[in-house]
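Title: Prediction job returns without error message
Component: structure pipeline
Severity: low
Priority: P3
Assignee: unassigned

Description:
Job completed but the reporter wants confirmation the result is attached to the right record. Sequence as submitted:
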Amino acid sequence: MPSKTKNAAVAARTAALPKIPKELLDQMLAGGAPMTAEQINATTMGKRAA
């Protein structure tokens, strides 16, 4: 059984993760179909350049 200390540490790391902007999620999920690797790369490269 996991300890409370370990659970607290995991929760703290999870809370520190950056939030994904709604616009990016909308762009990734547009059309209802999964994105291809090329589409994901183009989207993330575009966001990095911005």
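Comment from assignee: result matches the submitted record. The helical segments are 4-15, 22-28, 37-49.
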